């Protein structure tokens, strides 16, 4: 595990020297780390929030601004959750100082704060600690009145961390359902549609608890499209989904949920359980949610690094989704086209993408995560494309530093990682048969680890989901051999 830096927004990659064994690999690493660092709450707060006297200005990623005069409120309270919520709370507290009158956030990456309680939780499946912490955050919101301002801090991971089950759902029901959904290949929007209808805080219910106070939501988005109703399961946003939608997700993905879960959803469909608050509900009259960082934040920083190195950067999409191994094939094909035809961009080039790829797990899966599967699949495709040593490099990471349930953020691979032997004069760390078997068994992590390809950063303090970098040098620039 890499050592912590004195600057909590600095990303340190374990064995960086070994990974950065040539200029293309070094560039891929620099793009990844720059993207993660740009999305760290300390940097986000510095870029997106400013204070002039008591006037707080918030600049959203879409370029719009909102201003709040903090002096008009009796109290300023903070509530929220997410992988980065602790760092977010500390950064907001540094900016606002004694204008903050208290608060509570739930996170799995705690840091110290003076005025805001940073409480423990677990991710990606909820825990008893998270349940207690979520109740504390809800109590902060519920204690606010019409003369107060609640600042809601929401980041990726908030859905699992803000674990306050509905009254008839116990923690084991919630945990079992969450684990089954995560293994099913369901999208985050689908998963959150279910979680909202099993929760006392998600799907706009935290906003309802805070009413009639004003609420200013600040979100670091980890979801494709940056929909506030999906980020952390939308605790401050109207919920467009229904109990029927939640049941349909379970049916569509063959999820055998506990009886208490299906019973609640079915009773909700029948009208026996109140729906989540919808658009137009008075609970949202004083609520304003702003996206202050997203995958685009990371992509823009990575693009700047590439351009500074005189590589032509091209953002393919910030919304990549689908099965990880299939998405990797498309990315590899675009890299091949760049190499062969100079389209859609001529080398030296860096292709960038973000979003959230998924993995549909079968019985008895191995160890890994979507980014590791993406990297391994990409390495197989690059080997199949032709001559090794052209220098194509692919890095794929989860920006929170935790890919799947492993200690790796993702992996860095190149066109010399996988092969059928050394017949072309290039030594390969991983033979094709082993790589294909690992991919089919969803066991990418041990194979990539043995090949020295895993990227380990430890918790990064942020979460804007996946970030992928493909580097295509202008020409062969490597000596024989591999790292």
From TrEMBL:
Keywords: Pyruvate. One of its GO terms (cellular component) is cytoplasm. One of its GO terms (molecular function) is glycerate kinase activity. Residues 28-266 form the MOFRL-associated domain. Residues 1-24 are annotated as: Disordered. Residues 14-24 have a biased composition (Basic and acidic residues). Residues 350-466 form the MOFRL domain. It holds the Pfam family DUF4147. PANTHER family: GLYCERATE KINASE. This is Hydroxypyruvate reductase. It comes from Halorubrum californiense DSM 19288.
């Amino acid at each position: 595990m890499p050592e912590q830096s004195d600057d909590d927004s600095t990303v340190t990659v374990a064995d960086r020297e070994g990974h950065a064994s040539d200029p293309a690999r070094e560039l891929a690493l620099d793009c990844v780390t720059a993207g993660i660092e740009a999305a760290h709450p300390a940097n986000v707060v510095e870029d997106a929030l400013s204070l002039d006297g008591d006037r707080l200005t918030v600049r959203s990623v879409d370029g719009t601004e909102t201003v709040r005069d903090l002096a008009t409120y009796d109290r300023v309270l903070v509530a929220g959750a997410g992988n980065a919520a602790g760092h977010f709370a500390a950064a907001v507290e540094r900016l606002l100082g004694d204008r903050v009158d208290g608060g509570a956030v739930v996170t799995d990456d705690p840091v110290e704060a003076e005025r805001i309680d940073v409480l423990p939780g677990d991710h990606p499946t909820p825990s008893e600690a998270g349940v207690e912490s979520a109740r504390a955050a809800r109590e902060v919101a519920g204690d606010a009145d019409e003369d107060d301002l609640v600042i809601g801090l929401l980041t990726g991971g908030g859905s699992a961390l803000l674990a306050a089950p509905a009254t008839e759902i116990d923690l084991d029901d919630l945990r079992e359902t969450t684990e089954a959904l995560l293994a099913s290949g369901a999208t985050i929007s689908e998963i959150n549609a279910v979680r909202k209808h099993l929760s006392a805080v998600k799907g706009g219910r935290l906003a309802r608890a805070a009413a009639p106070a004003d609420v200013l939501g600040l979100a670091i988005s980890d979801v494709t499209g940056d929909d506030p109703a999906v980020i952390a399961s939308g605790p401050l946003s109207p919920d467009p989904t229904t109990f029927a939608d939640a049941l349909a997700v379970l049916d569509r993905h063959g999820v055998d949920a506990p009886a208490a879960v299906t019973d609640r959803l079915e009773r909700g469909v029948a009208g026996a359980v109140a729906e989540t608050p919808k658009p137009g509900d008075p609970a949202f009259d004083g609520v304003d949610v702003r996206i202050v960082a997203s995958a685009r934040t990371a992509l823009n920083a990575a693009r700047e690094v590439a351009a500074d190195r005189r590589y032509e950067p091209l953002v393919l999409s910030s919304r990549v989704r689908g099965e990880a191994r299939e998405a990797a094939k498309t990315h590899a094909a675009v890299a091949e086209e760049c190499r062969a035809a100079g389209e859609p961009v001529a080398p030296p080039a860096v292709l960038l993408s973000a979003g959230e790829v998924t993995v549909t797990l079968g019985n008895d899966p191995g160890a890994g995560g979507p980014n590791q599967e993406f990297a391994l699949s990409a390495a197989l495709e690059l080997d199949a494309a032709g001559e090794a040593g052209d220098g194509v490099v692919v890095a794929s990471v989860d920006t929170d530093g935790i890919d799947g349930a492993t200690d790796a953020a993702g992996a860095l691979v190149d066109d010399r990682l996988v092969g059928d032997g050394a017949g072309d004069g290039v030594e390969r760390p991983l033979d094709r048969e082993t790589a294909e078997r690992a991919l089919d068994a969803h066991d990418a992590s041990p194979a990539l680890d043995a090949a020295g390809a895993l990227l380990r950063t430890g918790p990064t303090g942020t979460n804007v989901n996946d970030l992928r970098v493909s580097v295509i040098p202008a020409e062969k620039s490597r000596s024989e051999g591999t790292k």
